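Dear colleague,

Following up on yesterday's call, I've attached the two folding results inline so they're easy to grep. Please treat them as preliminary; we haven't cross-checked anything against experimental data yet. The first protein's sequence and structure tokens come first.
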Amino acid sequence: MTDLARPDIRPPGAIDAAWMTRVLRQGGVEATVESVAAQPVGTGQIGDSVRFRLGYAHAAPDAPASLVGKFPAAGEESRQAGVALGNYLREVRFYQELADNALIRTPRCWFADVDEATSDFVLIMEDLAPAEQGDQLKGVSLAQARLVVVEAAKLHASHWGDAALDALPWVSGSSAAPPSMATSDMVQALWAAFVARYRPQMDPEWIVAGDYLAPRFLEFAAGHDGPRCLTHNDFRPDNMMFGGPRGGHPVTVLDWQSFAYGAGATDLAYFLAGALSPQVRRAHEPELLELYLRTLTELGVRGYGMEDLRRHYGHGAYLLFATAFFAAMIVTPTERGDRMFLQMLGSAFEHLRDHCVV
């Protein structure tokens, strides 16, 4: 028996056995799901993730024991931010049209659909357990950082200088994309609100840096003078799954809500500034930049040298700094989120100061 009816878009509480059966059969697995047990997972700010454990009436040997679904955020502020920024549409389009050729390790996507009118969406992906989600607040080991640097180079090489991305309206930073909601006035207002909320927890030097960066954010975003490529734009441990002693793929990158046609070195700075302590980053930056550039070259990128990389990388942490205060003010506040955004801001400041940007 084969049910070819396409699954509809529905909230996590409405995911049932019949719906999951259709997802699996359209994915090529002959199975009949008998029961579905749901449990929230992850620490997403703009989308909510749920693990679905599946019980079967009958199933082929390759039927998964569990899958992970992603849905719009339940918190109204976070949901509205995801809609306004185009994040929900963008992530679905990534899995539908770009993931297969992006070279970087992403989860298998079993089902992806979005209603462009309402921004309701569903993503059903492989469960990557026993790999474990990274933690922005804990950072990563140097060995993990090396793995991620190689994955970054794979992603960037996959669409290096690919003008076809410029014609896609759902690719952030493309010529065809609608104007960003992040106007200069808005960025400066969000920075002022961030300082008003968090000033007691902030180093005074961060405030001086933000007063300099906030009115210049659009200049930094538009000022890249090198080749563009497919970038993640929120390239941090929370959006990665790492294998460990219990198993799992070494590193898999999640959360493609913010990807762009932009500067690869910005992803690199975003990750290294936020995921390593300043002391470890400073000690190993030369090695990690060499690894990134060597991997790009092995994947066919030409005409991009270390001088270019150092220049672009040096400015790249501006995005980590801006994301910290921008996101903090447009998503539903949480205690962990508050700590994370302050950590991101402080780490970005250290990187920008080290590279004489602030």
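Below is the second protein, in the same order (sequence, then structure):
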Amino acid sequence: MNELNPRGTLLIAGGGGFIGGWMALEALKRGFASVRSVDVKPIDEWYQVHADADNVVLDLRNPDDCRRAVQGTDHVINLAADMGGMGYIEAHRAKCMISVLINTNLLCAAKDAGIGRYFYASSACVYNVDKQRDADVTPLKEEDAYPAMPEDGYGWEKLFSERMCRHFCEDFGLQTRVARYHNVYGPHGTWDGGREKAPAAVCRKVAAAKLSGNHEIEIWGDGGQTRTFMYIDDCVFGTLMLTASDFTEPINIGSAELVTVNQLVDIVESIAGVKLRRNYILDAPKGVRGRSSDNTLIRKVFGWEPKISLEEGLEKTYRWIYDQIAARGRSPEAAKV
């Protein structure tokens, strides 16, 4: 990782978010001379705050704030976006698309500042929805993003921003790297309030049911939807590996361990030592029927793919969420998966 460990500063845009907090911690562990975490949220709302980092509140939708953020930095990891689980992105398509301002203005600022490497966090939501209508889905290869038919709102913003990164590299020589994340989860993530994703939502509901004694769980859809879920440690490692490399095309960073939502619940129930009655909400937002990461390219280029099993990652995530609920002294009202 020498390319990303200069005597300078690594900027983490969205550093107050879930992935950003873990990214900052890993960068500090690896000995970066300085790590600057930037987020629009007040610092007391950040998911993790690291005293050794330069923690700054800026609105990266604003060009002037982007210029301030990159000043004196060597590399940029852009994780900043308005996003959440399926219920959130389906209900806030325009808000999710406004994130295009972040990447646009940050790319311009990075180009003008002579940034060495610029990483952009894209999403599996860029993939053509027609290829994801069956639970027994064929794993998605990078070329399956075209012809373009991504998930409306959030997916279109991600796909457009990928193209911006490509053309800033071609036209201006800015060394951009793009990863398509597949459902990142882990401790210190969103677990209630409507923005949480399925692993955290299931962990919360199972923990709440166990603590309350009300052994029921509400599931969006029929539980047959399939997904792959990537633990945060694999996400951070893969991101830094890609950013340090010479590979310039978008690439999947995701687990290939495909499960149904029902199987996801099975695993968390086993961890919790409880069995719940399932109530299926068939008219709730469900997203695509099936989605899986094809890791052929990342194995070929890097000889690596995400390795942490879903059971191992959910064990850590469930224990953390259980502790959060217990610390509140109450079981939160069930939100929907």
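For the second protein, one point worth flagging: Confidence is low (pLDDT under 50) at residues 331-337.

Best wishes,
A.L.
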